[in-house]
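Reminder to self: keep the SMILES exactly as supplied, no canonicalising. Ligand is zinc ion.
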Amino acid sequence: MIVARNHGALGVAMWCAAAWLIPRGASAQVTAPLSFGVKSTATVPLIPEATGEALANELSGSAAKRNLEYITRLHRMRASKGFRTAADFVAARARDYGLTDVKVHEFPADGHTMYGTQKARLGWDPDFAELWEVRVDSGRTTPVTRIASFEDEPVILAEDSDSADVTAEVVDVGVGGTDHDYAGKNVRGKLVLLSGPPTDAAALAIDKYGAKGMLSDMPNQVTAWWKEDGNLIRWGHLDAFEARHTFAFMLSQKQAGAMRARLASGEHITLHAIVKAARHPSSYNPVTALIPGTDLRSEEIVLSCHLDHQRPGANDNASGCATILEVGRTISKLIADGKIARPSRSIRFVWPCEVECTMVLFNAEPEMRARFKAVIHMDMVGGAPVTKAVFHVNVSPLSLPTFVNDVGHVFGAFVSDESEAYAEGNGGKYPLVSGEGGKEPLQADLGEFNMGSDNELYTEGSYRIPAIYLSDWPDRYIHTNLDTPANIDATKLQRAAFIGAASVLFLANMKSSDVPALWLTMQSAALHRSATMLERRARLTPAEATTYTREYLAQERAAFESIAGFAAISDSTRRGADAFFGKLGETIGVSAVPSPAKTSPLYARNPAVSGPTIVFGYDYLLEHLHGAAPPRLLSFTGARGTGADYAYEVLNFVNGKRGAQEIRDKVSAEFGPVSIELVTEYLRALETAGMVTSSK
Ligand SMILES: [Zn+2]
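Structure tokens returned for the bound complex:
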């Protein structure tokens, strides 16, 4: 995503680099910036300095990391014993820290209950799994080498594997996802070795060709580094809703490569696979807790994460869970110590299983969800340099214009600048360094909307809760056995906690008198975005450029208007905004922009179906198209978005007042031009699936 950060110290660093490149003689014309070498005297934006200081003194990356270490000892599958243990731990900690209304919820995970567009999966509890190479001599089987053990590394067993006890030869079937992979090979009664995902191979390998089970070293979350450590074992899955009973062991590339080489040389390899695991009716156990507000208790600002995933799952996502817990500890203690005032709005904490538990909570606790005004979601916020992580502060999609985005960015830029000044030896009043952590600058990427976690449920058109989304990407160890606490930087946890705490306190306290300062930061951010918009617009046809300009200005104006949902906008601020947007329009060419095209039919959401088309392990749209081909928009790629991005936003722009053309214009402004045909076809598919209705 595109960076639109406030360049403070970085601007100086770039200037220094540029000066070295200027030939002698010319350098005399370059004037040194006045700020060069000046110690940082930064003041915390938007919140009182005393609050910033109190947060900086209390927040502890080490305390967060200790909680993270406990969570990473558990194999945290949705609706499993491991998840429940993690949930009970988080709940106990939250109570210790003085949070109230702490609750471990119980909702059916029964394989059929619908929570909006999320069909409940069954719980899955693995107890034991081992894979042995064995020698068979005249009917006698002798164990030779243990290849994989659940006790050792639970990630070796693909999620939703079922019990089995099989001794059989192994056959290499390549990727394993097409008939071609099985041509000329007899896999009946045997084990197949795949380089692709077991989910994609099961129908062929097990149902059609009669194999007894699968082994795989498939990539999961490919990054530039994914082939560089052959010892990584990647988290694998089967389809939770399939009636078939089978299993898959996940191997490292080294293990699978050695096996392939032996098979290719004509060797026969016999394995003994033992699995004790089952899908069964269980409970989803998201945890919630509260710091009650003083007078606006019907409004809650949320701190969210996801507590599930394979052991250890340190960055993904014990890091986000431990960090919001640390924010809770800190704010609760500072209130108790009288160092900060209790906020007027309440602060809600949510530790769900990813996506599905958030959908469960939204739909099973609609009164709670109705109080949610904004969310700060954390998913992977502690990756040390070894993980190759880049830290992002992402925001809400264009279908949900909101000032909340700029609140996240302003604190992200502040921590970046302060930590950079500190790293460069120029002081920095807020280095936010943990005693056991690194000293590197944060260098947060202040990005745009990005899908990929529970944030996309909050901002979904059915719920419309503005989101700030803190996350690392890439991470070379994601979804592997080496996503360990050793790779977690306590300093980074502390800094993510500061961004989260400062954002949540500003939003929970926000009132009319905060609007002028907020509006000032929004103008600065709007000018950054305008520069980006002009760059992007230069690559468009005149017609697309016109549409883009119109949508861009409407977006900025709507973000300003969103302030009124939190605090009254004074007449003088409104007059200032009118003047600002008038000037901005003149500068970027608004006079040439006609009003939006009106088309019919108009599309409206079916209120009975809430949530996005695709959720965790379940595709509502495809299931409700009853075998029809997936709409082509899903495989489209635009200038700044994938088919999934476009599809998500097309549905979000449906509001009963827009036709296909207006919706096309808006997604085109967001991700780059897309044809009206693809958007119309997609809207019709949504109508066929009963998610939207159309009216002339
Ligand atoms: Zn995650």
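Points to follow up:
Residues 1-38 have pLDDT under 50 and may be disordered.
The chain has 19 helices and 22 strands.
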